[in-house]
From TrEMBL:
Listed SUPFAM superfamilies: MFS general substrate transporter (SSF103473)
Transmembrane regions listed in the UniProt entry: 16-37, 49-69, 81-105, 170-186, 221-243, 263-283, 295-315, 321-341
Region forming the signal peptide: none
InterPro entries per UniProt: MFS (IPR011701), MFS_DHA3_Transporter (IPR053160), MFS_dom (IPR020846), MFS_trans_sf (IPR036259)
Entry's localization field: Cell membrane
Annotated protein name in UniProt: Tetracycline efflux MFS transporter TetA(P)
Name of the gene this protein is made from: tetA(P)
Keywords: Membrane, Transmembrane, Transmembrane helix
Membrane topology type: Multi-pass membrane protein
Organism: Kribbella ginsengisoli
Highest taxon listed in the record's lineage: Bacteria
Length: 426
């Protein structure tokens, strides 16, 4: 049953691939040159760049759980539609108003929109297809997203030569259009919302939250992934905001096709990184499919986490442009491979009643980490150097491989598809 019925019902897997592909294309269109836009046209300082990211993460922290509960009580589909529309509004605001305050407001709207989609999309496809079948879907979706990112990066480079703000404007309009198209085609048949008399009450929301919290506490895999998400957040905010500053300030771009325009070079950087990540994802899923789809992939995830750590520290210490980029791409490839593996592992340890809420808790832990870690690392960059702040950012990741390795298989907490369906109907 859907809160807002679709006019035409499309196949869930194809719908999931399609909207993730479009979402990835539009996100690449926005974020390929977004930091260059904020530095070059808006004129943000390194501290302001970190504050922009921190503002966004505060929004994610405040809205992650409430929006996850909306997805669990009302409709996963409705939550996705609202999220995409809000993200579109955020992009349009930031593109049309190149001012620090407008960027901050846009980040709040983006954070709200993202939290509506966070967890809801995974919970939706898991409900529609079943827990036993979503692992390959997540891996395939990651590959679709990477392919779409390539197209988005190329488009961003071409459009960015006209204006650095134009990709934001085009992407914002595209996100709103995506929400309208999904309103027509995205079905929701296997989700059973709370009765109308209960779903608007704070008690029902509290009960859903308590159930999700109990799952996070009781199941070792979920508990560990929440902690890992927190640690990742402590590290990632500084790196995400300051890597472009290091590239722009520490290195000179060679002449490419008669230009040294940062729009061209950042497009090349993003394009190369995405091609490498896509190739690695395809090779790993082909050569080592059993490990990627394993019920307990802690060893693989520990190895990939170690690669991410080395990538961040290698980038921070590199004194040459191509060595720095190679290190960054190395870490990005590891993150790309690990994301669908971890997502499938988490979803197998949840049940339908609070799936979106618990996934939102994982996202909220990451937001808490970014809010707590971003400003101190930004201040460290100002007091010492960007290299020092980025090095510390990498060292923060060091406990994560050990946390993965400590986990042991516990099949008691893996939710069979049939059991989940029965629980959803009860």
């Amino acid at each position: 049953m859907s809160f807002l019925p679709a006019y035409r019902r499309a196949d869930p897997a194809r719908t999931y691939y399609a909207f993730h592909g479009v979402w990835a294309y539009l996100s690449a269109l926005t974020f390929t040159l977004n930091l260059v836009y904020q530095i070059k046209e808006v004129g943000l300082s390194p501290l302001q760049l970190v504050l922009v990211g921190t503002t966004m993460e505060i929004a994610c922290f405040l809205f992650e759980i409430p929006t996850g509960i909306v997805a669990d009580l009302r409709s996963r589909r409705l939550s996705v539609l609202i999220g995409f529309a809000l993200i579109g509004v955020s992009f349009l605001l930031q593109g049309f108003v190149p001012a620090f305050l407008a960027i901050l407001v846009g980040q709040v709207i983006w954070g709200l929109g993202y939290t509506f989609t966070s967890g809801a999309d995974q919970a939706w496809i898991t409900d529609e297809l079943g827990e036993d079948d979503v692992g390959p879907i997540f891996v395939r979706s990651q590959q679709v997203r990477l392919g779409a990112q390539i197209a988005g990066i190329v488009s961003a480079g071409a459009i960015g030569l006209i204006s650095l703000s134009l990709p934001l404007k085009v992407s914002g309009a595209g996100m709103i259009l995506l929400a309208l198209v999904l309103f027509v085609f995205m079905r929701e048949q296997n989700f059973h919302p709370a009765p109308a008399a209960e779903r608007d009450t704070f008690q029902q929301m509290a009960d859903t939250f308590k159930h999700g919290l109990a799952v996070a506490r009781r199941r070792p895999v979920v508990r560990a992934l929440v902690l890992i998400s927190l640690i990742s957040g402590l590290s990632s905010e500084a790196f995400d905001r300051l890597w472009s500053v290091k590239i722009l300030s520490d290195f000179h771009f060679p002449d490419l096709f008669g230009t040294t325009d940062p729009a061209v070079w950042f497009t090349v950087f993003s394009l190369t990184g995405t091609f490498l990540a896509l190739g690695a994802s395809l090779v790993v899923s082909k050569v080592s499919a059993d490990r990627v789809n394993a019920l307990h992939p802690n060893g693989l995830l520990a190895l990939l986490a170690g690669f991410q750590l080395l990538g961040v520290i290698g980038f921070a210490l590199a004194g040459q442009l191509w060595i720095a980029l190679a290190a960054m791409w190395f870490g990005a490839i590891a993150a790309t491979i690990s994301y669908p593996v971890e997502s499938a592992w988490l979803n197998r340890n949840l049940d339908s009643r609070s799936r979106a809420t618990v996934i939102s808790m994982v996202g909220q832990a990451n937001a808490i980490g970014q809010v707590a870690g971003g400003p101190p690392l930004g201040a460290l960059a100002g007091a010492t150097s960007i290299r020092t702040a980025l090095t510390v950012s990498g060292l923060i990741l060091s406990p994560i491989p050990l946390l993965y390795l400590r986990l042991r298989p516990d099949t008691r907490h893996v939710v069979p598809a049939a059991a989940s369906s029965e629980e959803a109907e009860s």
